């Protein structure tokens, strides 16, 4: 990538899963339920363990949804290699990212089994980083694998933006609960409350040094925003975290330039065998 004269250069086991990815719901060229199952013969890692499925069920992600999202178990050596780390325990659940309707893994994120701990400002011991990404990677939008243009381009379909891949998957289950003909809304995930922004290009500063250009990630351009009803649903702890409230306000300000009206949900909390009902 090059830049000159101050111009900005922008960064540009095989299994068929049922549940909300059920082939019987397919319409040509896209599943009317919204997500086309991807058949991927060369996934990193192994199948999820019974303990993984149990932990995911507590997040309102059932086995069919977990398998349809191609979540994978990795040992420490494999996890460390993927996220570019050494000298720790990097076993966990691997979360692949895909481009819309693509069967090619774009990138991975890793949910650690045993993250490092640290004390917060209140003196409580908490995980330092539950999730890791490979170094020097741009922030990306998380879509449920198989979602394609018909949902991304439908202004009548509401959108819920949340922070975290697992929350995005749980919301997708809710959107398709009780087998509607089509999802009730489209969930979009960011990997952190500020990660709808990132480095989107490079430019040259007054002294000739190359500088990063920050802004809204280009993945947001996948969506037809005009006329959408959009809800931002971050974690309940935002009431106690000023930085999270600021992050939500900044995202809302950006989205208002695209859609006008933004709604907010104060909390997302999923319990097994229950159906959360956010108002959208």
Notes on the structure:
This protein is of the alpha+beta class. It has one domain (21-36, 45-265). Helix content is 20%, strand content 22%. The protein contains 6 helices and 14 strands. A hairpin with a 6-residue loop joins strand 3 (92-98) and strand 4. The protein is globular, with a radius of gyration of 19 Å. Residues 1-32 and 267-280 have low confidence and may be disordered.
Strand order of the largest sheet: 8-10-9-13-14
Distance between the amino and carboxyl termini = 42 Å
Number of strands: 14
Strand count, sense and barrel status of the largest sheet are: 5 strands, mixed
Q: What structural class results from the helix and strand content?
A: alpha+beta
**Overall geometry:** globular
Number of domains: 1
Give unreliable regions as ranges: 1-32, 267-280
- Average pLDDT across residues? 81
User: How many individual helices?
Assistant: 6
Sheet-strand content, in percent, reads 15-25%
> How many whole angstroms does the radius of gyration measure?
19 Å
* DSSP helix fraction: 10-25%
Question: What's the order of the H and E elements?
Answer: EHHEHEEEEEEHEHEEEEHE
Which key features would you list for this structure?
280 residues, alpha+beta, four-stranded antiparallel β-sheet, 6 helices, 22% strand, globular, disordered C terminus
Topology readout:
Layout: E1 9-10, H1 50-57, H2 63-68, E2 72-74, H3 76-83, E3 92-98, E4 105-112, E5 117-119, E6 125-127, E7 131-132, E8 141-142, H4 149-152, E9 159-163, H5 165-175, E10 186-190, E11 197-204, E12 210-216, E13 230-233, H6 242-259, E14 262-265
Parallel strand pairs: 9-10, 9-13, 13-14
Antiparallel strand pairs: 1-11, 2-3, 3-4, 4-7, 5-6, 8-10, 11-12
